[in-house]
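User: Some background: our group keeps a shared notebook of sequences we're curious about, and every so often someone picks one and asks for a predicted structure to add to the entry. Today it's my turn. The entry only has the sequence so far, pasted here. Could you supply the structure so I can complete it?
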Amino acid sequence: MKQFKLLVLAALTLVSVTARSQEKTEVQYTPKTGDYAISISGVPMSQYIGQFFNGALGNNLAEFGGQAYIGGDVNTIPFQKIMPLMSVSGKYFLDKETAIRVNLGLIYQRTFTKTYADDDADHAINPFSQKKVIDTYLNKNTGLSLMAGLEKRAGKERLQGIYGAGLLFAVNNRIEKYTYGNAITDINQAPSESNGGTVAPALNGFVYNRALENYNFAPTVHAGIVTFVGVEYFIIPKMSVGGEVNFTALASFDRAQYQLLEGFSTVDLAKREWTELVSPSSNQITIGTGNIGANITLNFYF
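Assistant: Of course. Here's the predicted structure to add to the notebook entry:
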């Protein structure tokens, strides 16, 4: 009887160990129906780490946090494209091979600078005067990008291929404003300034003119189709690294650009403000491969 109990105990132990072993071998690495995913770009992080160790200046995490579906140089006038400073990419799996893919990118940049200029009124009284006035410059850029599409994947093991397509829409706007410490007067028709607002050469009928506001110095609306193909490898359950290449067809539509200027008129000998047209509305179409989306991603599934 005692031997029988020992035999039963041994059998139960074997079953338990076998079940646990099977559980370990059946760990779910890949996504399943109803799973969600969040993706972040590994490229900005790798650049950040590399710059951190090589001592590069200007190190930042501006693009960390998703796929920036439209990139560009925020210091360029006019902006060629919007560059989301914060972006979130998410997925929802309709089944284990099909997911809805959404990327939301936001940008809000505000730069306000103050600079000194010579105080013309005081300098006229005292040529050796060191008195200063303050000029200001405000640069504000806001925008939003949204991509929604369908993702398919092939492969049942930890290495999977991904492909799909989506629609992209983005909008952004930029404005610049200037203020000056030295006013334009009949005595001081071309005052000193230090914030780069002078518009040269002076327009006909004016001794001098400078900008007060600049409008629409950026593409306003983008719309297009994004297709992508790549791979993902699950390093641990529910976590993968991936890489992809995109093919895009993107149309950009710009509103007319204009400026609000001020200057001293030689016709009626007075300061005047007026609106100056810079360029009419325009559009462009871009088709090609590129990193309009992160080419290296870190993906979390839950």
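Suggested note for the entry: The chain is about 15% helix and 50% strand. The chain has one domain: 56-301.
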